[in-house]
Amino acid sequence: MTPLLELAGLRKAYGALEVLRGVDLQVFPGELVCIVGPSGSGKSSLLRCCNRLEESTGGQVIVDGEDITRAGVNINKVRERIGMVFQQFNLYPHLTVLGNVTLALRKVQGKAQAEADALGMAALERVGLADKARNHPAQLSGGQQQRVAIARAIVLQPKLMLFDEPTSALDPETVGEVLKVMRELREAGMTMLVVTHEMGFARAAADRVIFMDAGAIVEQGPPADIFGAPKHERTRAFLARYTAGH
């Protein structure tokens, strides 16, 4: 099977600080891959290099067979294939929920209002928020706002979804509703790369868990192996600290 996303020798440096040190990674269609690791290990930088929100300093990012790091690539076209959900919801406060979800359909893809609205409502239905279409973001809980952000990403029908700590800004009681939507997306066949601190989610929902530390992949494998029998001392120490802290 051909990977949908392939990172080959990916490097990222800020001056003398190297945050990604030659990372190789493949994500296959329909796979949910969770990246875990201590803060500052390069997880978010890796994710942001996957759609060139950050420019890598070396290596390749290949999405659906296309090297998106090469010169002359139309990055806006590429980003239509890669949905991204951030820690912060980044919704426009002056637009309704439906307006936020349909903005790219109208402005980027040039769809007519009626078609955009129909697609937007279908996306909101998928995240369980069709009844909030006319509300504004300020009228929603954090969990609901994050689900709107997911609807905004999936409405473009991306092939790959990137999630950067999607629950870290949420109240504990709303984390579950966002993770439930993510599980449902996976069941529907969405390919997902998720940076998360939610170990329970990684353990229960991921096909593969990647442990990163100091800008490199230390270990990867099925959740049962990573959580049940980690091979590396650094993985063991991280998981032990994590379990102790929770």
Question: Can you put this structure into words, describing what you see?
Answer:
With 246 residues, the protein is α/β, with parallel strands linked by helices. It has 9 helices and 10 strands. It has helices at 43-49, 75-80, 97-107, 113-126, 142-154, 172-187, 199-205, 223-228, 233-245; strands at 5-14, 17-27, 32-36, 58-63, 66-67, 82-85, 160-164, 191-195, 208-213, 216-221. The strands form 2 sheets. It has a 6-stranded mixed beta sheet, with helices on both faces. The protein has a 4-stranded antiparallel beta sheet with strand order 2-1-4-5, with helices on one face. A hairpin with a 2-residue loop joins strand 4 (58-63) and strand 5 (66-67). The longest helix is centred in the last third of the chain and has 16 residues, at 172-187. The protein is globular, with a radius of gyration of 18 Å. The termini are far apart.
Write the layout of secondary structure elements.
Layout (H helix, E strand, L loop, with lengths): L4 E10 L2 E11 L4 E5 L6 H7 L8 E6 L2 E2 L7 H6 L1 E4 L11 H11 L5 H14 L15 H13 L5 E5 L7 H16 L3 E5 L3 H7 L2 E6 L2 E6 L1 H6 L4 H13 L1
Parallel strand pairs: 3-8, 3-9, 6-7, 7-8
Antiparallel strand pairs: 1-2, 1-4, 4-5, 9-10
Helix pairs in contact: 3-4, 3-5, 4-5, 5-6
**What spatial order of strands do you see in the largest sheet?**
6-7-8-3-9-10
- Unreliable spans: none
Shape: globular
What does the main sheet amount to? 6 strands, mixed
Whole-angstrom Rg? 18 Å
Could you give the count of β-strands? Answer: 10
Approximately how much helix is present in the residues? 25-40%
